[in-house]
Amino acid sequence: MRKRDWIKVYNAQGAAEAYIIKGLLESNGIPVFLDYEAVGSLLGLTTDGLGQIGVLVPIQWEKVARRLLNQEEGKRES
Which fold has domain 3-77? Predict the structure, then answer.
């Protein structure tokens, strides 16, 4: 797939959070691509956009992915 066929559904604040979200989505059959700047992970920075990791899914999976993420957010708030 080309990059334009993917859409960001989540912006994680570091690798640990990104891999948790990735695992959630993949365990539900959704393909995931993590988009990040090498310098953030190299230096371990998570400020001013450095260290942020975009969680992308194919466009056709966007609604399902967002629904799952919203359900998880609701569980954490309860």
Answer: Alpha-Beta Plaits (3.30.70)
Whether the Cβ atoms of residue 52 and residue 43 lie closer than 8 Å to each other: no
The model's pTM: 0.78
> Domain ranges in the chain?
3-77
pLDDT tens for 27-60 read 999 999 999 875 554 555 555 555 689 999 999 9
Sequence-separated contacts (24+) of 24-29 with Cβ below 8 Å: 24/68, 24/69, 24/72, 25/55, 25/57, 25/65, 25/68, 25/69, 28/64, 28/68
Query: What share of the chain in percent tops pLDDT 90?
Result: 60
